[in-house]
Amino acid sequence: MASISRVYVGRLAGMPVRNPDGDPIGRIRDVVVRLRAGGAASPALGLVIQMTDKRRVFMPMLRVASFGPQEALLGSGQVSVRQFRARPGEQTVLGDVVGAKVRVDDPELPGLHGVPQEVTDLELERTRTRDWVITRVAVLGPKRGLRGRRELAVVPWSHVHGLAPAGEAPAAADAELIAAFHEMHPADVATRMADLAPARRRRVAAGIDDELLADIIQELPDDDQAEVIEELAIERAADILEEMDPDDAADLLHELDGDRADVLLELMAPEESKAVRRLMTFDADSVGGLMTSDPLILQPTTTVAEALARARDPELPTSLASLVFVVRPPTATPTGRYLGCVHLQKLLREPPSTQIGGMLDPDLPPLYAEDHYDTAARYFATYNLVAGPVIDDQGHLLGALSVDDLLDHMLPEDWREQGLRPGAADPAEVAR
After folding, report:
1. Fold of 172-281
2. Which CATH architecture has domain 297-410?
3. Domain positions in the chain
4. 31, 172, 201, 289: which has the highest count of C-beta atoms within 10 A?
5. Which positions fall inside the CBS domain (predicted)?
């Protein structure tokens, strides 16, 4: 039987397997791989074989003598009797990898740059040491045209990014740390995360749920934010960005390679990515570059009771809950005409059935998206506010600027690393 040194996993699926005597023992159902990040050589560890009695067992690649056009031949008659279960760090190609979204930076295929691609198959090649490694990846682009046609491309493994290695089972110490993080403030968790060794930080991040990880990333220094998000599988990275505040997601994407940022934006939900894309168009030192597009926005016919119920939303930051922004429909930013705002304290002093359109503050001017952050600082100091409306030249509400986002931008870049009291001993350490 002619031996093949290169083969696609999809071609192997369903292929009969024979023992050295030529007797059929089952069929190939999948290939087990260990993915390594950064284009490093990633080995195929073995085959998942469905035996004639329907059991699925693992067969190491070194036991495979050859792959032919129609069947695989084993070099040993010994077959494991244990049911196949992937171990920590292992993934199956057809079960885990195919269908995943990736980013491609192959200079020979510039048309794929910045566009999310879907893995449809992996090519394996046998080396001189008889090991099998991943060499190329077949990918499908997004649907194009009325008939949904998708372009197929084959890319070298070293130019495919976003397939994260399988997470290892967390050690007891890591599991204990993850549990502790769920009881801490995200800012304090971020401080601890920044001090972890990179390998342990990856393990811990893999064990934290998306919502908490998004909160933690928002509190990390810019360089650490980019490092953590780049270490995640690209689909999970997009999920994390959706959980983040739009302004923080926009800032983080500015720190990433342009192609990777484009792919992440494409993978995000359209409504989420639309808000982030809009924020990314503003200058970093402008009010538009610092604002959030998700403040508390209501119509003038909303009652005080409804407004207070919306302000109680635990997902709404405290600073943004201090003001209700009143607009004509639509209420999604950019909104209809901005009418004014109502302070939370005023809502607490009015009857529940009162409509908020009659309670607007007539003396509070808005900020404009093009204003410099110095203007915003003077604005907050002048009007004793912790949040303010941001509008465009046509009077549409674009978002709101909170004082915490302004301070974050005005403080030195390394203020998070310096801690709450630079140069002073940590009170928790002193207490020990």
Report:
1. MgtE N-terminal fold (1.25.60)
2. Roll (3.10)
3. 6-93, 94-161, 172-281, 297-410
4. 31
5. 360-417
